Amino acid sequence: ASVANKGVSARFVTAPFSALGQNTRIPSRNATCLALPTNQPINPARNVGNRMRVDNMEQPFHPLYNYAYMTDSAEGLILVDVNTLADGEPRNNNLKRALTWNPSGVLNGARHITIGGCYLYISTPRGIVIVSVDDPLKPMLVAEVALNDVRFSALQFRYLFVVDAEGLKAIDVTNPGQPRVIAKNTIRLQNARSVFVARTYAYVAAGEDGLVIVDVEKPEAMREYQRFSGSGALADARDVIVGTTNASLFAYVADAKSGLNVLQLTSPESQPKFYGFSPEPKPQLIASYRTGKPALSLSRGLERDRGVDETGNQVAVFGRRGARPLDLQEMRKLFMDDASRPWYVTDEPASSPVARK
Questions:
Q1: pLDDT digits (tens, 9 = 90+) for 79-125
Q2: CA-to-CA distance for 176 and 293, rounded, in angstroms?
Q3: Backbone φ, ψ for residue 105 (5° rounding)
């Protein structure tokens, strides 16, 4: 039970896999991206059917958590059941395809996938394809957003941030079935490759422009905050991941020319106001590692303490009876009015007919 506990130092296992062998390879024609609904350690089978923990008032795991989701530029969407690696049975650790889906070639050229609860946001050369996996083995095409050569996307709350041939854009996905590209709201970039959103800032790996930091506190009025090249160290930035360690925020940048670069974004020395929800980043290049081949991509770090996903599905146990997270309808009451419109702040007087909270 404590194999993954870093506080356990005894060498009581010989390897992290079964001595009986395993096969975690899924052959495909041209795989481009792989994503999990959560990177927290989970076991969906423990809380479904007759194993439901009713006494603790937990919600069942949604079936979408049984799968890894892969895009392939030729085959479209591929689902793989990965529960076999978490069931404690060492004799069945052989992954197999559960589904291949690409109706009418809608996912031809697929290159990236972002998961937000029951919805997949898939990047293709023609735009964003939104797919529902509420029934994972029967995906449904929800909507398509026409854009020019989409490379990457990142989801935060009601907005999908997208990089395409023109730069960084924002799409309102409050209703995934009716996505809305925010007009006159493009951060122009020559070669944006990927984007990571952390609180009120978006970090764009922008090729020869290095790391471009964008203020997205107001997603419908984004503004460029800073461009950082590390005195030329970031000459072909391809991917960026942001994470926190203690009181400091770090950006890890994969650069095709210089390898892996580590940027310290906040620290008590560089940013006296490093406390708070979202302090202004002050990037400093603190480490580099030259890779043997071009560094093109990075994996996400552990996203800790997440109890629920974007569509109200419980992910983690809160540890006390009745302490479940809000479901989708309960969450929507916090940011949507009775007419399913987002609440907004207005300068109109309270007596005005157009004023809402």
A1: 999 988 877 788 888 999 999 999 999 999 999 999 999 999 999 99
A2: 38
A3: 70, 25
Local structure of residue 280 (DSSP, 8 states): P
* Pair of tokens at residue 155: 């989801």
- Given a cut of 90, is residue 49 above it in pLDDT? no
Query: Virtual CA dihedral for 316, 318, 321, 324, nearest 10 degrees?
Result: -60
**Any idea what DSSP says for residue 104?**
G
DSSP at 314: B
Instruction: Give this prediction's pTM.
Output: 0.92
- Distance spanning both ends of the chain, measured CA to CA: 49
**C-beta separation of 289 from 280 below 8 A:** no
| pLDDT 10s digits, 10-43 | 565 555 566 788 899 999 999 999 999 998 888 8
What residue type is 138 in one-letter code?
Answer: K
Beta strands in 246-321 (DSSP E): 248-255, 259-266, 284-289
- The predicted-structure confidence for 156-185, as pLDDT tens digits, reads as follows 999 999 999 999 999 999 999 999 999 999
For 224, counting Cβ atoms within 10 Å of its Cβ (0-12 exposed, 13-18 middle, 19+ buried), the class is: middle
- Residues 124 and 87: their CA atoms lie apart, in Å, by 35
